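Continuing the batch. This is chain 6 of the set; chains 1 through 5 are on the previous pages. Same settings as before, nothing changed between runs. Recording input and output for traceability.
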Amino acid sequence: MAEEAIALRTIGERVKNYERQFKDLVKRFAGKKGWYALVALEILKISSELSNVVDDVRRAAEGLLSELASKVDEHIGGQVRLVERHVELLKESQAKLSQLASLLEKIAPLVREALLPALDGVRGATEEAKGVIEAVKEDRKALEQAISLLEELKGGLEASLGDVSSLVKGLIGETRSLEEKATSLSEAVGLLVKTLEELRAEREELEELRAELDKREEELRAREAFLSERLKALEEARASLDRMMELLTALRGEITKATDTLKTRAEELIRLAEDFSSSSEKGLADVKAIIRDAMNRVEELRKKEEEILKREQEIASLEARYSDMIARERRLAEREAALKEREAHLAREKEKFEEMFSAAKQQYDELVKLSGEVRKALSSVRDAMGRLEELRSALEAKERALSEREQEIAAKMEALSEQREELERWREECLELQKAADKAARELEELRAEKEELSALRSKLMGVLSSAEEKLEELSEKVSEYEQKVEQYRARLDVLREVKALEAEAERKKAELEKLSTRLDELKAEIRALEVAKKQKQAELEELEREIGEREATLRRLERAIRAIRVGELGVGE
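Output for chain 6:
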């Protein structure tokens, strides 16, 4: 339960940090279901992976440091033990050689004439052995100095490895944060590109609508010209109709007068016909023809009057339609002016959006450039780590070479121990020889006449001399071996010089690491500046979203206006 409470507390803290950093994006996508929990889970996964990576790097660095420290300690301890063993063996050999010299001095009176050159050779060998011992002491001092230098180098390497590990951890964290910021900026740029594509699509639609409006405007202009011509013709026809109406009214008056006169005359004629029944048939036919003509003219005049009334009704309907067309043209002109104003506003908004998009693109390019510089810095750090690995491998190779040399020295020490055993046997033989010489001296003092024993003693002494010559040759071989050891110690001194060179290289790498740390501080400052710029860009994105919403509202209003215009045009077509 405690672990679950701690996990829930860490989840809450990370979610709060994430909300503080990406509050605007959370507001933008808060309406989408499941997004918040998905983001929290992804953040937990990323944080757990980062913590695992950091723990792995820490464990690897600690393991490497512990292995390197243990190897250095083992190597230094082995070298110290080996040098102490060599010194003890040399002291033992020196003591034994001194004992051997005393024994040889004891038997010198007996065999001075034969062994004097051999003793001189042994003395020279002892002096050379003393020189070798002094050289070994000097080598021991040099090895102690080398051990102190190696310890200092170990401390410097541990400190530099700690600095490198902390720098690598910091760089890994910074690269993670930069990658997250780059992804968030790429998402923001993607949203900007999407909105730009939408605006481009809207612009294309507006251009299509504008083309349609231009086409409609041309059609309306053609219709206006046609209607103006029709209106001119109508005005001319109206004027002619007015003149005709005046003529018709005049004719109507005349016709009414004529009809009245005809009616009166007909009545008079009827009365005359009734009164003058005795008149001739020819006069009656003439009167009937005149009356018939008058009635026909009256009918024609009535028909013309009806046609004139119909023409007046048509003219009235044409005038009403003309007034409707003029009103529609006025409304179309007003809508066209509104559309032109909206196009100008959209053009200004488009320029602002393009400026904002170019600024965002420039910021994104700067971020890409910064990420490239960070990658270069990381590659340089990796190169430095590779060089450190190479140095470590070189040190391991030198350690292996030193171990091989230690094995060789151990083999030589075994050979020296075997030679020491031979010297012990030779010393025992010399003691026996000394005893025999003492016994022979006593016998010479007692029995000088025993020549056979003296000859046997001489032969034995000659064998001892031959064995002494063999031992001297062995000593000369040992001296040559000591010279080889001196050369090996000189080679070790060369190795120490190489270690000093490696220490100088490590100092140089430390200076490079200090430069990298300064560069890391600069990158952190740039990252903080980029975070400030990111906040500014987020504010600009919010402003841009608000403007996009306003544009969408204006576009919806434009669509409604265009639909209304289309409906109006359809009404005109009808």
